[in-house]
Amino acid sequence: MFQLSDPSLSSIIRLAAFLEDTSDPWWILGSAAVALSGVNPGGVRDIDVLVSLQDARRLMETKALPNEVDGGGALFRSEIFLRPEIGDVPVEIMANYVIREEGGWWPVKLQTREAVSVCGTTVYVPELGEQAMLLQRLGRPKDLRRLACLRAHNPKG
User: Considering the entire predicted model, what is its pTM?
Assistant: First the structure.
């Protein structure tokens, strides 16, 4: 099983406390989610989090966070993009996250949510199959490398 670095673990624990007052489900995505699922993603440079629009707005208000959305990129964007300084590994919180596919923008609506215990703290990730689908949809080289790691770990998924 893959072991996260101490700075990543510390940031994830702080993230869970930071999101304690949210009312809707949230998920860790990307390399951190792959790592939390026990697969080596080839490094964790940041922690991506998907929250509801309502919770993102509440975090902006209660934590005095600016919306750092910049219009997004050619492949994906979000309506709200927050960067709370809560640990040594950067955290990026997104709400109303969409991916460009087939000539249009399609929302990321996750269907699965698995609890993962990190040093006695519970965090959430999509199940491996849904993580794989999201990485495939994103399609960037780093996402496809992570997808290959997931498939090598679970060839049936």
Answer: 0.92
Q: Residue 57's CB: how many other CB atoms inside 10 A?
A: 15
| 6-148 is a CATH 3.30.460.40 domain | yes
**E strand or H helix that includes residue 7:** helix 6-18
Non-local CB neighbours of 102 within 8 Å, separated by 6+ positions: none
Q: Are 144 and 135 in contact (CB under 8 A)?
A: yes
% of the chain at pLDDT higher than 70: 96
Say if residues 99 and 138 touch (Cβ distance below 8 Å): yes
Beta partners for residue 82, in sequence order: 93
- d(CA 130, CA 136) in angstroms, rounded, equals 10
A 10 A CB-CB count for 154 gives 14
What ranges do the domains of the chain cover? 6-148
155 to each of 42, 45, 149, how far by Cα in Å? 18, 26, 10
pLDDT of the residue at 72:
65
Q: Which of 5-9, 33-37, 58-62, 70-74 has the lowest mean pLDDT?
A: 70-74
Res. 69 pLDDT band, cuts 50 70 90: confident
